[in-house]
Write a structure and sequence with these properties.
1 helix; alpha+beta; four-stranded antiparallel sheet
């Protein structure tokens, strides 16, 4: 088997390709981007995951926001820094003369 196209409502949204003992999902539509690269044991499992993801009611795809307030014993800010390819710089310490 080479690749198998995965459709939802008659539209191609991705494909699965053999990868070792399983099948790797390759997304071609933004709506299933969260499944991109995921390994499934059978193509039908990828189809079920696509159906479950795209059948959610609008506005329910993201969990409620939560807020974390740093406290004593938490990791330092340097451990949460952006990687080298990020366009967002770390905040700089202000120095006052």
């Amino acid at each position: 088997m080479q690749k198998q196209v995965i459709e939802f409502n008659g539209e191609a949204v991705g494909a699965v390709v053999p990868d070792g003992d399983g099948f790797r999902f390759i997304a071609v539509k933004y709506g299933v981007w969260s499944l991109d690269g995921r390994l499934f044991s059978r193509p039908v499992e990828a189809k079920r995951a696509v159906t479950a993801l795209l059948s959610k009611p609008p506005g329910r795809s993201m969990p409620a926001a939560s807020f974390w307030v740093p406290g004593e014993g938490d990791p330092s800010i340097s451990q949460f820094g952006w990687n080298a390819v990020s366009a967002v710089p770390l905040p700089r310490e202000e120095t006052r003369a």
